[in-house]
């Protein structure tokens, strides 16, 4: 029985119908993004997912500077929470200084209380792209696409052949 028939039967019998609550919206601004004119002015954040062979999944947090298209940070782990993202951003602010704006999607890690608190405490404008529009965060999406082939090569090579930076 589909949901429309179920709703009709409930209303015919004058039964109470539970309504779903609306989805929590991100609190950041959805105004047009400012253009990055200087390095460190605007950072982009995104997650990339992959698997170790056919078993465990892992995620990578990528942080890029949009002006010079430099990758500032690449963190890989099996689970990355909003609090972990805030800790990584603290470390980046100590190294590169505070950005004026951060651009990300509406993922749960980026809309968590820890991130909203971090953005408020550090006086950083957090800009969320529109849902379903990854082209609004094109610099980081392009980086993620170029990261994929090198990630596959690194995962297929034996650990003894890896070179350290």
TrEMBL record:
The name this protein goes by in its record: Putative transposase
Boundaries of every Integrase catalytic domain copy: 35-165
Entry-linked SUPFAM superfamilies: Ribonuclease H-like (SSF53098)
Provenance organism: Sulfitobacter brevis
One Pfam family it belongs to: rve
PANTHER family hit by this protein: BLR2054 PROTEIN, LOW CALCIUM RESPONSE LOCUS PROTEIN T
InterPro entries given in the database record: Integrase_cat-core, RNaseH-like_sf, RNaseH_sf
GO biological process entries: DNA integration
Gene Ontology MF annotations: nucleic acid binding
